[in-house]
Amino acid sequence: MVGRYCHIEVLGMENAAALAAVMPAVGLNPKAEKAVDMFREWAEEVGAVEVKLEAVEKTDRGAKAVVAVRAGPWEAKYYVYLRKEVELQFTSTDAERVYQMAHVLKLLGVKAEPKAAERRSLGRHVWQIYATTDALASKAVLPLFREALARAVEEAAEKGWVEAEKAKRWAEKLKAGVTTAEDKPKFRIQINNRGALGIIYMTTNAEKLGQYAEELRSLGLEKDIHFTTKPPEGGKLGALHITVEGVKKLAELSHHAESEEIRQKASEWLNHLLARAEESGGREAEEKLKAFIDEGAARGVLTLTGLRREVEVDGERHVVEIRRAEARIDEDGRLRIRVEAVVDGVEMEREYTFFRDKGNRTSGRVSTWTHAPGGREADIKRLKALSTVIFGEAGALTDGGRLLKYTRRHLEYAARFKEVKEAAERFLNAGVRGGAIDEGL
User: Is pTM, for the whole model, over 0.70?
Assistant: First the structure.
């Protein structure tokens, strides 16, 4: 004992789990959450939790499941309503009982904090616990409890008390479990009809929307470049949209930010996005998201100057050695990448120019030369080899062989080089500010 405080140390999983189970529900020290997590791990191993589906009953608006639970020394019985959602509810005028019921749910992995409410019909205050589908289906919830709820849903559907298609979705979600992050938006991540990746969160809660936007801003993401927001008005849904450039920025921060705290927070956002992509968009959305993350993580990692590489272009091998590279934005807002190199023993000095067309799309080009050693045909071969090293691809030959052209994706590839990264990002971000977001399709 030190003054008013009592310090307790517990050794061993079983003892820690037992402590978590008997902790008073009222005034539970937040630092004891780790012990509660340990209880769930231990409970699965030794069968310290029992869950029984006692009944499924018809109601006026659907069905009701009665689920009995024993967790450690606690026994509780919950009513779960199957209406527009799967809804667990408990209400009482006895605050201590409500907190105890919430504590048992916490031991099961269900996050449902008690809230006070005024019940005018009773002329007094009551305390309530309320949890809906996603909280009940979270992967943090013990499978025993999720499986019991899934059985209740299936039984109600078989008896015609719940619409079959809706019940199927609920049951699948409860059995498989969903990844939820209480401090992150529940994004819908899907491939749209244009083949682009959409990352959007919609809500009527303006405070939540502002909180998420501020968290992204605090990491270094810029509004209208890396994310956009639309506040809710007149009861209509507002939205938070993370752009592809925002995904890449998060990946860059998670790997290269100087602050360990920022690297950690950016990684948490990415992990959450990946989990949401898997659950809301499927394999295609997840793979596309991973590709953008890989691209962002690669930014600024490599150095062009001094790079020596052998590449194959149009079935021929070429040796490329880059002696110097620099990138800048000129007075007209165009990005210029100047490179000095030796290709197949021939010295080259070229400047690639990137600009935006009337539709705000990114385009780039470089000229081929007739007066180069071996003439234009030989120059094209060497220039394609050089471009492959810088942009990942040779580029498209146009204008009668006088130009090689490039798109946004080529420039994004080049941003992995330190000499190009800063100027390329400023150029791309200026384009987003100037008009529609170019997703590089």
Answer: no
